[in-house]
Amino acid sequence: MQKLLNNIFSKYYIYFGYTIFSLPFLEFLNSNQRTLERVALSKFCLYFFILSLLYFFFFYILNKIITSNETKIKITFCLNIFFWSLFFFEDIQTFIFNMWMEDIGNNFSAELSIIILMLFSLLFVNLKFSRIIFNFLFFFFIFQHLVIYFELAKANFFEKSIVTNQFEKEDYFLEDDLKFIIDNKRKNKNIYYFVIDNFTSLNQYKVLGGKQDIYEILKFFENNGFTYITNTYSSFNDTAATFGSILNLNPIITDTKDISNDEYFELTYPNNLSTFNFRTGNYPALIENLNKINYKFYWLGNYKFNCKYYNKNLCIDLDKKQKSSFLENINLYILKTFLINTPTEEIIRLLVFNLEKYTTSVENYEVSTFSIKNFIKSIKEFGSNNSNFYFIHNVDNSFPFKYDGNCNTVTSYIKKQQEFNINNYIKSYLNSYDCNLKVLKEFVSFVKNHDPEAIVIIQSDHGPRVLYEDITDLRRYEIFNLVKVNNGCDKYISNQIDNINSVRLALSCATSSKVKLIDKKTYFTDKINVKNYKTIEISTK
Question: Could you tell me the pTM of the whole model?
Answer without folding.
Answer: 0.75
